[in-house]
Amino acid sequence: MISNNKTAGLFGLAACYCLIAMHIYWPNRGGSGFYLPWNLVGGLFIALFILGAMLLSRPPLAVSGFFNRLAPGALILLLPLLWTKNPWLGEALPRLLGLTLGVAAYFALLQIPLDRLRRRRLLILLLAATVIEALLGLVQYGLLEPGNAMGYNPLKNRPYGIFQQWNLMASFMATGLALALYLLSNRRPLHRACNG
């Protein structure tokens, strides 16, 4: 478990990713998973978050009932790596690396004491990331011309934000809407939610 006063750096790292790094467009050839540059940036931020949480935590390490089931399940999903042949190994590794990073990030998040105020701040941060992506989608929908730097095709006019796939943008927006509804249902004045 990490003491409360050491969590500010980890929260700052999460804020840097959600408010800045996540929304930077890098030209690429498309693809999925770790073939897209911002997924690599996201993986790097997750790895730094895990490293910071593990360096700051002290025994006993916190676990949950869900984690006690998640970790063995992830290990079972990693078993086919033992007998996978070379041509398919390159396709499987990025996906399984993402799975491993996700499980490790959840374990690292368990080490951070998230009281009600910190949990609310984290959710507001994720909602802010959704709002930034929504604004980027509006810019794509209404302002971008053919031949723009993002490679967005205004003739199709299906905004995709930074995700390059409109269905991912839709899922992210739906998650943001759910967050907004949750935060509204547990409403407190915004200045109190941010300041304690």
UniProtKB/TrEMBL annotation:
Record flagged with keyword Transmembrane helix: yes
Residue ranges of every copy of the Protein glycosylation ligase domain listed in the record: 159-184
Keyword Transmembrane helix belongs to the record: yes
Superkingdom assignment: Bacteria
Pfam families reported in the protein's UniProt record: PglL_A
Keywords for this protein: Ligase, Membrane, Transmembrane, Transmembrane helix
One annotated GO molecular function: ligase activity
Chain ranges passing through the membrane: 7-26, 38-57, 69-86, 92-110, 122-143, 163-184
Name of the protein in its database record: Lipid A core - O-antigen ligase and related enzymes
Organism of this sequence: Serratia plymuthica
